[in-house]
Amino acid sequence: MSKHALTVVGTGPAGVSTAIYAARAGIETLMIGFGEGALAQAKEVENYYGFETPISGKDLLDKGIAQIKRLGVQVIEQEVVAIEETNDGFVVKTATEQYDSKIVVLTTGASHSKPKWQGIDTFNGMGVSYCAVCDGFFFRGKNVAVAGNGPYALHEVNTLLPIVGSVSLCTDGKPLLAEFPPEVKIIDKPVTSLEGDTILSGLKFEDGSDIEVSCLFVALGTAGSTDLALTMGAAIEDSNIVVDEYMRTNIPGLLAAGDCTGGMKQIAKAVYEGAVAGTEAIRILRNLK
Question: Comparing C-alpha atoms, which of 163, 199, 164, 203 is closest to residue 187?
Fold first, then answer.
């Protein structure tokens, strides 16, 4: 397990800005990211400082990564599935590795992914959960389902197995992207709706079949900043991570910046918050010495 002073989760403008400030201050910095966000899909960006002619979102992202690599930041392309507190900071877990860090800054974007299934909003908090660590205890000994098909879903499944009675994995027709334990029932049929009166009682599938479950844990795609923050007990409001003026969450040593904190979803805002988070991380780390 490698150790770093600062780990930035996310490779977008907020994360790069955080890393620039930290690296220039001599802070050993690791950046972990996986996949491309919304900015990579932008054909032309022309409302950001310093570019005489429009630049594509992907080119802007590539320039940011090249910049922080030049400054000595280690960049790893892996999917972060969980972050856990330790006596000496945090452990950042990916599908295959673990990284120790004194400070963590979340910059991987906005809220969690949500399936477009009938009833998903109706049963939110009444049998629909986005955090196995938070809510698994309430369904001990009962039958539950996890929505997903990759490493993030696998982490939620492994969290639930020692607690609940049984776990069914609902891939909604998508192929498996991870190897799941044999005791997990894999259901690859598309889901059409969630069933129940005031609380969730089951799921119905496209072929007319159904299963009885007490809770559906949603773990689609990759874990965003809000997902990771939720599992750690960080304060969330309107699907945004709550931070103060220094980008600090309610968990000491855990900061957040960019779209995941709400407000304008603009590059300029993300870069500013990354600069604040990087500066605050420097201050915290220097006070630890």
Answer: 203
Rounded CA separation 240/26 (Å): 31
**Longest CA–CA separation in the chain, Å:** 62
The residue whose two tokens read 């991987």 is 108
* Equal CATH topology for 2-111+223-288 and 128-218: yes
**Concatenated DSSP letters of 146-185:** EE--SHHHHHHHHHHTTTSSEEEEE-TTPPP-SPPPTTSE
- Assess contact for 143 and 214: CB atoms under 8 A: yes
Give residue limits of the domains in the chain.
2-111+223-288, 128-218
* Record: fold of 128-218: FAD/NAD(P)-binding domain (3.50.50)
Stated as kind and residue range, the H or E segment containing 255 is: strand 254-256
Q: What is the mean pLDDT of the chain?
A: 92
Look up the pTM and report it.
Answer: 0.84
| Residue 61 pLDDT grade (very low, low, confident, very high; cuts 50, 70, 90) | very high
> For 136-184, what is each residue's pLDDT tens digit?
989 999 999 999 999 989 999 999 999 999 999 999 999 999 999 999 9
Neighbouring-strand partners of residue 202: 195, 212
Residues 6+ apart with CB under 8 A from 63: none
Match 């922080």 to its residue by tokens: 68
The CATH architecture one would assign to domain 2-111+223-288 is: 3-Layer(bba) Sandwich (3.50)
Round to whole Å and give the CA distance between 85 and 76: 21
Tens of pLDDT along 240-258? 999 999 999 999 999 999 9
